[in-house]
C-alpha cells in the first residue's frame, strides 16, 4: 500500500535541495542515477570497430536504451587518446594530480561507472561472459577538452604528452566539423549512408592530422648529408641546409607561383618574422604543392650517386639553382663556403 508523503516535509526537502551548491546537487543526482541503474545491463543492438577505416582496434557499439547511446569500449577510450591497448591507463590519468581541476566531478563519475552491456548475438545462457564495459562516445570529446585545457595552462609539458595532445586536437576539430555537417543533413532531411558518414569523418581526421605532419621529410635531410658530405651535428642542422632549402625547394616553387618569392622577401623585410619557417606560410599556394615538390626532390636525391649528379637533375627539372645573399653564421666552422658548395647559375 502506497503511503502519502507529508507535503510540509516534501516542501522542506525541496527547499534544502535548492539551497545546496550546484555542484553538490549534480553529485547527488549522479549518485541517484547510479543507484537506480545499479545492476542494469543494457544490450548492444549494433557493433563496429575503428580498425578497418582508421587503423586502430577500438570497438564501438550502439545500445538499445531510449537514447540509442553510442558507446566506445572502456579500453578503446584510452587508446583513442594515445594510451596503449595493454592496461587501463585512462583511470590513472584522469585521477592524477596533473588532471586535477580539469576532469570535473561529473565526468570523473561517468568514467568510474561505465555502461555494462551485453554484446550483440550473445546467448542468454552466456550473457555474463558476453558482457562488456564502455563509455558514451561523447565522453571522448569531454576528455579531449580536458586534455587541451590542461595543456593550455602548461600542465602537460614534456614529450610524453605530445601524442595525447595531438590526438585530442585532431579528435575535437574533426568531430566539430562532422557534427555540424550531420546537423545540417538532419535539418535538410538528408540521410547519408554509412559509407558517406565514415568517409566524411575520415576526411576531417586526415585534414586535422596533416597539420601536425613534418613538412620536410627527414629522408631528404639524410640524403643532403650524404651528397654534400656534411657530418650530422649533435643538435640542429648544418647551416648549408638553409641554402639547399631555398635553392631546391622554395625557388622552384616560386617559378610557378611568385607568391613564395614575394613572401620570402616580405619575411626578410620584417624583423619579427625572420625566425619563422617559410612552410608555415604556405597556405597561400597550398601545402599540397609543397609535398609534391618535396617528393620529386627526394626522389632525385635518392637516385643520385654524387652531389653533381643530383644538382644536374635539379637544373634539368627546374631550370637551375639560385643564390640568396646569405652568409655562413661562422665561416671558420663551415664545412664548405657557399660559393664552393652551391655553384651559381643564371637566374630564371
Helix-strand layout with pairing:
Layout: H1 7-19, H2 22-36, E1 42-49, H3 51-54, E2 59-63, E3 70-73, H4 74-80, H5 89-94, H6 105-112, E4 115-118, E5 131-136, H7 139-152, H8 162-188, H9 194-210, H10 218-227, H11 240-256, H12 259-269, H13 287-302, H14 307-318, H15 338-341
Parallel strand pairs: 1-4
Antiparallel strand pairs: 1-2, 2-3, 3-5, 4-5
Helix pairs in contact: 7-8, 8-9, 10-13, 11-12
Key terms for this structure?
single chain, about 350 residues, alpha+beta, 2 domains, 5-stranded mixed barrel, 15 helices, about 10% strand, elongated
Q: Can you describe what's shown?
A:
Strands 1-2-3-5-4 form a 5-stranded mixed barrel. Helix 10 packs parallel to helix 13. 52% of the residues lie in helices and 8% in strands. It has 348 residues and is an alpha+beta fold. The protein folds into 2 domains: 37-210, no CATH class; 218-341, no CATH class.
Amino acid at each position: 500500500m502506497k503511503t502519502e508523503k507529508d507535503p510540509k516535509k516534501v516542501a522542506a526537502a525541496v527547499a534544502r535541495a535548492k539551497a545546496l551548491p550546484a555542484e553538490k546537487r549534480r553529485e547527488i543526482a549522479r549518485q541517484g542515477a547510479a543507484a537506480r541503474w545499479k545492476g542494469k545491463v543494457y544490450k548492444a543492438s549494433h557493433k563496429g570497430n575503428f580498425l578497418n577505416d582508421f587503423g586502430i582496434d577500438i570497438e564501438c557499439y550502439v545500445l538499445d536504451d531510449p537514447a540509442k547511446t553510442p558507446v566506445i569500449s572502456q579500453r578503446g577510450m584510452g587508446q583513442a587518446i594515445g594510451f596503449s591497448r595493454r592496461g587501463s591507463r585512462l583511470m590513472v590519468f584522469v585521477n592524477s594530480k596533473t588532471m586535477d581541476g580539469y576532469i570535473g566531478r561529473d565526468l570523473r563519475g561517468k568514467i568510474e561507472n561505465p555502461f555494462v552491456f551485453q554484446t550483440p548475438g550473445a546467448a542468454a545462457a552466456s550473457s555474463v561472459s558476453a558482457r562488456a564495459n564502455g563509455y558514451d562516445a561523447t565522453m571522448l570529446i569531454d576528455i579531449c577538452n580536458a586534455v587541451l585545457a590542461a595543456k593550455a595552462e602548461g600542465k602537460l609539458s614534456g614529450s610524453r604528452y605530445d601524442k595525447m595532445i595531438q590526438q585530442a586536437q585532431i579528435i575535437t576539430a574533426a568531430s566539430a566539423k562532422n557534427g555540424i555537417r550531420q546537423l545540417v543533413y538532419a535539418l535538410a532531411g538528408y540521410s547519408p549512408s554509412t559509407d558517406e558518414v565514415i568517409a566524411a569523418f575520415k576526411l576531417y581526421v586526415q585534414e586535422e592530422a596533416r597539420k601536425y605532419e613534418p613538412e620536410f621529410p627527414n629522408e631528404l635531410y639524410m640524403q643532403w648529408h650524404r651528397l654534400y658530405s656534411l657530418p650530422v651535428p649533435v643538435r640542429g642542422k648544418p647551416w648549408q641546409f638553409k641554402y639547399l632549402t631555398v635553392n631546391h625547394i622554395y625557388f622552384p616553387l616560386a617559378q610557378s607561383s611568385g607568391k613564395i618569392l614575394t613572401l620570402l622577401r616580405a619575411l626578410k623585410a620584417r624583423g619579427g618574422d625572420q625566425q619563422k619557417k617559410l612552410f608555415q606560410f604556405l597556405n597561400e599556394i597550398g601545402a599540397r604543392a609543397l609535398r609534391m615538390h618535396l617528393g620529386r626532390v627526394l626522389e632525385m636525391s635518392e637516385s643520385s650517386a654524387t652531389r653533381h649528379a643530383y644538382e644536374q637533375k635539379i637544373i634539368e627539372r627546374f631550370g637551375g639553382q639560385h643564390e640568396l645573399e646569405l652568409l655562413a653564421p661562422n665561416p671558420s666552422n663551415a664545412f664548405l663556403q657557399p660559393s664552393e658548395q652551391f655553384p651559381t647559375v643564371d637566374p630564371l
